[in-house]
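Input record (one chain):
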Amino acid sequence: MKTVILSKPLKNLAKNGTAQHNPCRTQNSNPNTQKRSFSVFLKSLSLAFALMLCPSVYAYPGYGSGTPSELWESTQDGWAGPHAEIGQHLDSHKNYVMWTIVAPKIPLDLRKPDFFRQVLAQNKTDGISISHNVVAWQCHVGNKTYRGATGHSGESHNQSQEMVKLGWGLTTFLATFTDGWLTGGIHSGGMLRVRAEEEETFTLVVEVKENNCAQMLQFLKAFIFHPKKPVHNFGLTLDPEKFEGAGCITMAKALLKKAGVFQEVFSASHRDLFASLYRFGGNDLPLPSHTKVPELKWRKEHPKKVRLGEFFSENWNASGPGIHLGLLDPELLILGYKTLSSGLAGSPRVLKINQVNDCGGRSGRPCVIQNLKIDKNLDAQAANIVAKAQRWDRKMLRSGYSKEEFALGNGHPVILYSK
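The corresponding structure, as predicted from the sequence alone:
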């Protein structure tokens, strides 16, 4: 593969006016009808569980459809929203990388597959919101300055929702949607500004060395210009570092890894969910446009359609044959961030869980809801996240970094590590 070097000056993108769009548009629902309730559940499910978490409603029609050069330049078109406000606290001559995460309105319980199903089943309303991850930067590489932001997005035709309706079940979460793109710097900041009005957002800013900034931008440019066009592949199972494609949380992880930022916590935030084989459908079923699925060997001779009622109400945990689903848990990442904070980031988020196994649905057993703080006592993995974040913080301070916490005008907390 040809090495991409940041050596040529960037050309300014032509501005064709301001597009009229709502970065936080959601699908209307009527909770009084089962069909619409299922629709909201499916949309929330397919976006949140797959941790694609960056739906196309953040972009106007045609956004991200330009040439690789235009897409690359759009990621470098500057800052807006919280990034611009944070920039007022930064030294314009230094190199910085920012990571912003938008928290789901309703905390997601990803400790077990059926815990997640129960959270969604209990909240089949527009109150469920998806998460999002954006990485921004100010990089001085050689005699060039790069200032921008990006996040990976896609699934612009509601394919995931359609797949579940067609009977694909949990196989939906193995799908690749071929209509992905990267959002630009100004667009990313504008989207975050709107999201922060109603949802918790958190930003970590770290001063980095020039070579770390350069490595991150070289990776981003290689990803955009790669001959396999991974920028158009959007999904859970894709590895951006192998140029397969990405979701927004995996793209953020890859960019931060290249910059050397917070990787200990990201690496420890993976959940391994063992889901029932019988909730996976596939093979002879039709697929929506702009959608691919891997070969499903376990269904080759026995095609399976997972019916909507079954998928919605029956246990997703594997009591027999199962499939491993590996994913990054946004709640663990948020816990890692909150561990760094002296309190400005707020109190622990709270899961609403059932104390009764296999309740609701066909079981007929009533559910008993319990509030459970997302802190080091949640489970062993949460305790590990807290320990990793504390060690990372101590390492930074021992290395000569100072830590500053401040809030933006809307209360958005920011933690800044600088030298």
